[in-house]
Design goal:
Length: about 450
């Protein structure tokens, strides 16, 4: 008799509840006595924190999708969840009365909870988790991108066999480095030949009514079917419903107004003011050095296209020679598209190269953030001449305020070509959220330190 995935998930949730409850009860009795079970402030705060920990484990798929988690990933996820719960307890302890001895109690509960959860989920991963042999189906570009994403998945549970394409395969079949297996019509036979356990379809790479019959044949072979590339939509915007037994994939609209945008502005100001105070002395020194060494005005001003197409003046430290715009006419753009970029740009001064590599040249834009012309996070603003040469879809980025950093900057910076730049910025506009902004800000610092793609 097969046990349903839902029953398996519920059983392990119940086991975790017992483990966490037992941990808190035992720790309380050992450190104090049984009378503190209902009176200790630590216990009263620890219960809702434990519920949040269980919810977090469920959200990352530890119950319903455990077979997708390998042992190293389980160690990482359990450690992250337990430490997050401990941090939340410590933070809440500043605002509520948790009584004496709380530090010993939370340390004990943290260590024991980590051990029992790791034992539980680590045992499942070690004995039951299996790598899934996957074939990706779609256009060559989408298939290759998805195959690479599966290989980089931190859970290390996917073994990518290769990909099939929904077009003439002759031009990619010989490209062994890309793993082309054949045409999409051959998919059922290829899945059997390569012993694939799952096929991931990129919907943007399929034509006609090919998906349904292929999915039916694959399911009959015992192969799982998954869908991706739903118009480059963030997972949090996707929901699944049904009408009279017919499944529907629902996509929530992007939110570009209301209280969330007001909160974004508050965060911009709250970060920009302290940043100016902290970096103020450095900015003053840089301005003097530019004036003395390069003998040019330290602040570069240029007109850029902002939100809703409004033109504003952007501020940066001067990194080029005085007649840079005239010299640009004799240079060749190395970036495919209207945005001008080139390696070893002769107009950049020696000091300017250092400022660009370290992104110090961007610091004056904090004044743009205070003025509201820019945000900390958003699409990069460009000059009007470049925007006018770009495709009409490029102007979709003007629905939000341009930013000092964004998806483009943390995904390769200047190494990204124009197509990637456009796609990354439009993804940000379509899927904007406060959490997305915080994630980009967190990735910006290591991107700057690595100096990858900076020029």
């Amino acid at each position: 008799m097969n046990t349903s995935p839902r029953r398996i998930g519920v059983a392990h949730v119940v086991l975790d509840v017992i483990l966490l409850a037992g941990t808190m009860i035992t720790s309380t009795i050992l450190l104090w006595d049984s009378s503190h079970l209902l009176t200790a402030g630590s216990v009263r705060l620890g219960v809702p924190i434990a519920v949040c920990v269980l919810g977090y484990l469920g959200w990352i798929g530890m119950y319903s999708r455990v077979r997708h988690h390998r042992l190293p990933a389980v160690v990482f996820e359990v450690t992250r969840v337990v430490l997050s719960g401990t941090a939340a307890f410590s933070l809440a302890g500043f605002f509520v009365d948790i009584g004496p001895g709380a530090r010993r109690w939370v340390i004990t509960v943290t260590v024991v909870s980590w051990l029992v959860l790791l034992l539980h989920h680590g045992t499942r991963a070690a004995f039951f988790a299996q790598k899934r042999r996957v074939i990706v189906a779609g256009s060559p570009r989408r298939a290759v991108a998805m195959a690479e994403a599966l290989r980089q998945d931190r859970r290390k549970t996917y073994e990518v066999v290769g990909f099939v394409v929904d077009e003439d395969v002759s031009r990619v079949r010989d490209d062994a480095s890309k793993g082309a297996l054949g045409a999409i019509e051959e998919l059922p036979a290829l899945a059997e030949l390569h012993d694939a356990s799952e096929v991931v379809f990129s919907l943007e790479g399929l034509t006609g009514g090919k998906f349904a019959p292929l999915a039916r044949m694959l399911n009959r072979q015992g192969v799982h079917v998954a869908l991706t590339d739903l118009g480059s939509v963030a997972p949090r915007r996707v929901g699944i419903g049904h009408v009279e037994g017919r499944p529907m994939i629902e996509i929530a609209p992007s939110v570009l107004s209301g209280w969330r945008m007001h909160t974004k502005r508050v965060v911009d100001v709250a970060v920009a003011i302290p940043a100016l105070i902290v970096f103020g002395p450095l900015m003053a020194v840089v301005a003097v050095v530019i004036r003395v060494v390069d003998k040019v005005p330290p602040i570069f001003r240029q007109q850029r296209v902002g939100k809703d197409g409004v033109i504003f003046t952007i501020y940066k430290f001067q990194t080029m020679v005085a007649n840079a715009e005239q010299l640009k006419l004799d240079l060749t753009n190395e970036l495919d598209g209207p945005i001008f970029k080139m390696d070893c740009d002769p107009r950049i001064t020696t000091l300017g190269a250092v400022l660009r590599k370290t992104s110090i040249d961007e610091l004056p834009q904090l004044f743009n953030v205070l003025r509201g012309d820019m945000s900390l996070v958003g699409p990069r603003p460009f000059v009007e001449a470049e925007v006018s040469l770009a495709p009409a879809s490029f102007r979709e980025r003007e629905a939000v305020t341009p930013g000092m950093t964004g998806h483009w900057q943390v995904h390769g910076r200047s190494d990204a070509d124009f197509g990637q730049l456009d796609e990354l910025d439009r993804w940000y506009v379509d899927n904007w959220s406060l959490s997305e902004d915080l994630g980009i800000l967190a990735k910006t610092v290591p991107a700057v330190l690595r100096q990858k793609g900076a020029r």
